[in-house]
Amino acid sequence: MQEQVVYKGTDWKRFLQQVLWETYCKNPMLVCGKHVLKQQGVLDFISNSQYTFTVFTDFQPNPDYSSAIYAAGVFKSQHCDFMLAIGGGSAIDIAKCARRFACMDLSKDCLVQVPKESNIKMLAIPTTAGSGSEATHFAVLYRNNQKYSVSDDNMLPDYVVLNPVFLEGMPIYQKNSCFLDALCQAVESWWSLKANEESIAYSKKAISLLLKNYKDYSSLCVNNNHIIDKEIYANVLLGAHYAGKAINITTTTAAHAMSYGITQKFGLAHGHAVALCMVQVWQNLLDSDNRNLDNVLNSISRAFNCVTKKDALVKFKLILTELKISVPRLTTNHDIQQLAETVNIQRLGNHPVPLNVNELRSMYENIFQSYKG
Length: 373
Ligand SMILES: [Zn+2]
Known about the structure:
The protein has helices at residues 12-22, 42-47, 65-77, 89-101, 172-191, 197-222, 230-250, 254-266, 270-287, 291-303, 309-322, 333-342, 357-370; strands at 5-8, 28-32, 54-56, 82-87, 121-126, 138-143, 146-151, 159-162. By secondary structure, it is of the alpha/beta class. A 6-stranded parallel β-sheet has the order 1-8-5-4-2-3, with helices on both faces. The protein has a two-stranded antiparallel sheet with strand order 6-7. A hairpin with a 2-residue loop joins strand 6 and strand 7.
């Protein structure tokens, strides 16, 4: 996999100019949410640029396959030659897929085709600190309410801008759920069977940055304080980026796999749903009798500044309480069974212990029992 060029700082326009110049492109496509155009002079920049930007904003959170196909069609018809994504995980995922699909026959299924070789470069600017999508070579798309993971080494963005100022004004719920997504990614990656020295180093860095900064990061917004402490934002953004780099190597495990059903059923933010599942998945691992896993759980605990392996989960639950993470009101036994059955068990191959439908069902039961209200 190629190395990314990561620019950390606020002068994103100059960096982008330089990249566009170096890559000899003429017609970049910008994929972003509509609100992003008003942020940090984005619209001014593209309007006054010497390049002809094509702007694509026509997609929803948890983006659909058809949106990515549509974006790829626009990319082709406008003869675009560079992909710029500014936004959260959905914008960056759409851009990653559109760049890939643009090198395919759009009249056929793009989830099964191999793309023609291309030299289209991509730059991603995350405006949330959580998904880590700017650091991964895969993306999530939905087709007919089914989740698909599109993955290829070439999907990793070539350039990344980590500019803390883009986090300004994020609503508190989104902020907290993105933060939890990043924290869960870092932990899941650590205990993943695919973890290696490099991924664990990223997990460690991510957990340390996220835990050191989350209180200030979260309370800044609660107080509606417009004076941004850029350093805190920069630290959380970097923490989320490291978590992305960790799962880029290992992918995620059961907490993520279990979360998709909850997101779809209750419309919770992704990180919120992952965090609810995480509590049960973590407890399940603590209960399993496995010496190798014990070592891993103890190491994770030390990264949480805790003494015993159980303490890190206690700390994680405390964070959920502090961030006022609620549990949706459930629901029938039938719903629970359905949630358990829709988890893709084959995709749990890198989870450290095998899980069957019964165990999944009992974890879902616990989620909705433990936080009734
Ligand atoms: Zn996630």
